[in-house]
Specification:
CATH architecture: Up-down Bundle
Subcellular location: Membrane
Number of helices: 13
Organism: Crucibulum laeve
Membrane topology: Multi-pass membrane protein
Shape: globular
Number of domains: 1
CATH topology: Glycerol uptake facilitator protein
Distance between the termini: 38 Å
Helix content: 55-70%
GO molecular function, one term: water channel activity
Keywords: Membrane, Repeat, Transmembrane, Transmembrane helix, Transport
Number of strands: 3
Strand order of the largest sheet: 1-2-3
């Protein structure tokens, strides 16, 4: 005997049993208003917990007053940020798409049809996740920071760079921008390829593993010069936290407002460039503006096939995330 299933806007009827999508007022509000932004908030917070956490553990442990022996090296930093990215996407990918990066959100909105109405909420949530994640790590390593800085409450750029990115002294402004631009473009190209069904998409649920490998590779290959922010929320959120807890205005005035043109504009423009290249030369799905039908195709009702594994980039499962 076959079951009879009826689908309505707010509930599903299965034979004589009805299951509602919104069993109470909070569930409706959560689903319609805050579920996706909260997933982005949590994803970025987890990214920062692992990333800023490994920065603090590796650097602060180099001081004998903090611990008897060092607890890591540069490769440890690469692994920590890679794990943070993978775990952040894992907890958010099936709900919001797991962007956890304003530059990715903006690129998808510009070229892949991600709703612009969702962009402000996503970016605000991502930035807030960066602030909260950094605040939790700051509280966790508060006493070690005091020892490393040389006294209670002393806060300088010597430890500010455990939370946000600061370029090496020999890097010129143009070189700093190019380093972030290049790394972000590579990030976006791989994210798009990962979600392209006509390329080589990973099995469902393995997007976090691909992103782990990707961030590990970017850090090991391109991370030395600027700290590979490749994510405005990853840098600006913790930078705002450091300004709040006593590091002063120098976190924003460093190298003629480095915070704006390198870890924010570099990744945003890099992901835009990476998307333009991938969509213009490789992607054939209807999701991209490069494959929208022209006037003749519209007259003949011809459209490209949908090829993206929705929702990009985190994997399947979200409700209209893209």
């Amino acid at each position: 005997m076959e079951a009879h299933v009826e689908h309505f806007e707010d509930h599903v009827s299965y034979d004589n049993t009805e299951e509602t999508l919104y069993p109470n007022r909070w569930s409706r509000y959560r689903h319609v208003m805050i579920r996706e932004p909260c997933a982005e908030f949590l994803g970025v917070a987890i990214l920062i917990l692992f990333g800023n956490g490994v920065d603090c553990q590796v650097v602060l442990s180099s001081n004998p007053g903090v611990t008897a022996s060092p607890k890591g090296d540069y490769l440890s930093l690469n692994f920590g940020w890679a794990v943070g990215t993978a775990m952040g996407v894992w907890v958010s990918g099936g709900i919001s798409g797991g962007h956890i990066n304003p530059a990715v959100t903006l690129a998808l909105a510009t070229y892949r049809g991600f709703p612009w109405r969702k962009v402000p909420g996503y970016i605000f949530a991502q930035l807030l996740g960066g602030i909260v994640g950094a605040a939790l790590i700051y509280a966790n390593y508060f006493h070690a920071l005091d020892i490393f800085e040389g006294g209670p409450g002393v806060r300088t750029l010597k430890t500010a760079n455990l939370f946000s990115t600061y370029a090496l002294d020999y890097m010129t402004n143009v070189s700093c921008f190019f380093s972030e631009f290049l790394a972000a473009a590579i990030l976006m190209v791989v994210v798009l390829a990962m979600n392209d069904k006509k390329n080589c998409p990973p099995p469902a649920g393995l997007a976090p593993l691909i992103l782990f490998i990707l961030i590990l590779g970017i850090g090991a290959s391109l991370g030395m010069e600027t700290g590979y922010a490749i994510n405005p929320a990853r840098d600006l959120g913790p930078r705002m936290l450091t300004a709040m807890v006593g590091y002063g205005k120098e976190v924003f005035t460093f190298r003629n407002h480095y915070w704006l043109w390198c870890p924010i504009l570099g990744p945003i423009l890099g992901t835009q460039a990476g998307t333009i290249f991938y969509d213009a030369f490789l992607f054939t799905g209807e999701e991209s503006i490069f494959n929208k039908p022209n006037a003749r195709a519209r007259q003949q009702h011809i459209h490209a096939h949908a090829q993206e594994r929705k929702p990009a980039p985190g994997g399947p499962g979200a409700d209209e995330a893209v």
